[in-house]
Amino acid sequence: MSGEPVASLEGVARRFEKGGVPFELAPTTLSFAAGTLTAITGRSGAGKTTLLHLLAGFERADAGRIQLFGRDVTDAGESALARLRRERIGIVHQQCVFLDHLPLWQNVACRLVPVGVPAGERRARARAALERFGLGSRLDRLPRELSGGEQQRAALARALIAGPRLLIADVFTRLRGEGVALVIATHDAVLEQRADVRVRMVDGRVAAAGA
């Protein structure tokens, strides 16, 4: 593990309503290093997803600063954030979303289309990514033909196909040995024990953080 900082939150806070109920993420300071796995834990509604959305640029902070890859992105425009997500950040949502009319390889390789990667290379890279998760024989299957576990593995392949330096996920992953900073929201006690850093959220606050 190189320990190189990949992302950081400095006093980041967020206030909004969820289902008509006010929610507040208290000022939060965390950093995420290359080659490390950070497990974000806590009960439903504790603020895990909000923290991940802020880190990925899906939500804006009301206070504090956010840095990604050595750059302050707190006030970055939507197009710049979208480019970062496309080129340098892998994101795996809890609910795996696919275009069900397209074969699996096209779903996995879809993030390569905007950067002009030719179709033949997209298919080859999709095959390599899927083979890492035991799905090399599923290239031309439709997503609905996969089991739930296979869909999660396919979502991980899609998130990693562009070689991101930061992976943000709501599901289990074992991929931290390639210099990628992994930030995962989880209820999995085994994964929490395997993490390099554990962050426990309670009512919008970091209750504990450490190795």
Detailed description of the structure:
The protein has about 210 residues and is of the alpha/beta class. The chain is built from six helices and ten strands. A six-stranded mixed β-sheet has the order 6-7-8-3-9-10, sandwiched between helices. Strands 2-1-4-5 form a four-stranded antiparallel β-sheet, with helices on one face.
Task: Describe, in short, the structure shown.
This protein has helices at 48-56, 78-88, 104-108, 119-131, 148-160, 189-194; strands at residues 5-18, 21-33, 37-41, 63-68, 71-72, 89-92, 166-169, 181-185, 197-202, 205-210. With 211 residues, it is α/β, with parallel strands linked by helices.
Topology:
Elements: E1 5-18, E2 21-33, E3 37-41, H1 48-56, E4 63-68, E5 71-72, H2 78-88, E6 89-92, H3 104-108, H4 119-131, H5 148-160, E7 166-169, E8 181-185, H6 189-194, E9 197-202, E10 205-210
Parallel strand pairs: 3-8, 3-9, 6-7, 7-8
Antiparallel strand pairs: 1-2, 1-4, 4-5, 9-10
Properties at a glance:
211 residues; alpha/beta; six-stranded mixed β-sheet; four-stranded antiparallel β-sheet; 10 strands
Sketch the major β-sheet: 6 strands, mixed
Strand order of the largest sheet: 6-7-8-3-9-10
Q: Care to count the β-strands?
A: 10
Q: So how many helices?
A: 6
Shape: globular
* Euclidean distance between termini CA atoms: 14 Å
Mean pLDDT: 85
Low-confidence stretches: none
| Helix/strand/pairing category | alpha/beta
In percent, how helical is the residue content? 25-40%
Strand content: 25-35%
Question: Oligomerization state of this entry?
Answer: single chain
What series of H and E elements makes up the topology? EEEHEEHEHHHEEHEE
Instruction: Supply Rg.
Output: 17 Å
